[in-house]
Amino acid sequence: MARKYRVNRAERAINAMFRLLTRLGLGAKYRHILTVGGRKTGRPYSTPVDVMERDGRRFLVAPYGVVNWVRNARAAGEVILSRGGRTERVRVSELSPEASAPVLRQYISEVRVTRPYFDVTLESTDEEFAAEAPRHPVFEVQQSSS
């Protein structure tokens, strides 16, 4: 059974540290800061996220499930990604479970720290990864037209 993500004081401190390092351009190359307006308030919220590159395309993965940034990104369809002083506004579109499977497989292969939040392993089938996808949404990142 996968571990459930809970935001507590320690998680907030870790996220603050990752936000700072990422803003400075330090740490894992796949880590970015996602900023998106709240779906109810419109107030901008920022959180560290992982952007995977695969076949020349970029994807956002939600390792902790359908958390607030996922809900806000779904509602907005557009987010801001930042890293090391570089900022870009991008469109995001959620992938189908079948299309998410190879990205999720790559993600748990490269980002080991989040593996306890998944019910699949590297040995799982594509069908098992597709079944896991609704619990870990994947968005394709595309250049914004604005």
Characteristic key phrases:
4 helices; alpha+beta; 146 residues
Would you kindly provide a written description of the structure presented here, covering whatever features stand out?
With 146 residues, this protein is an alpha+beta fold. Helix content is 31%, strand content 30%. It contains 4 helices and 6 strands. It has a 6-stranded antiparallel β-barrel with strand order 1-2-3-6-5-4. A hairpin with a 2-residue loop joins strand 2 (44-54) and strand 3. Helix 3 (97-110) crosses helix 4 (126-132). It starts with 8 loop residues before the first helix and ends with a strand. The mean pLDDT is 92.
Compressed to H and E, one letter per element, the order equals HEEEHEEHHE
Considering DSSP H and I runs of 4 or more, what fraction of the residues is helical? 25-40%
Query: What is the gyration radius calculated from CA atoms?
Result: 15 Å
* Order of the strands making up the biggest sheet: 1-2-3-6-5-4
How would you state the average pLDDT, rounded?
92
What structural class do the secondary elements suggest? Answer: alpha+beta
Large-scale geometry: globular
Question: In this structure, how is the largest beta sheet organized?
Answer: 6 strands, antiparallel, barrel
**First-to-last CA distance:** 42 Å
| Count of helical regions | 4
Low-confidence stretches: none
* Beta-strand percentage range: 25-35%
Number of strands: 6
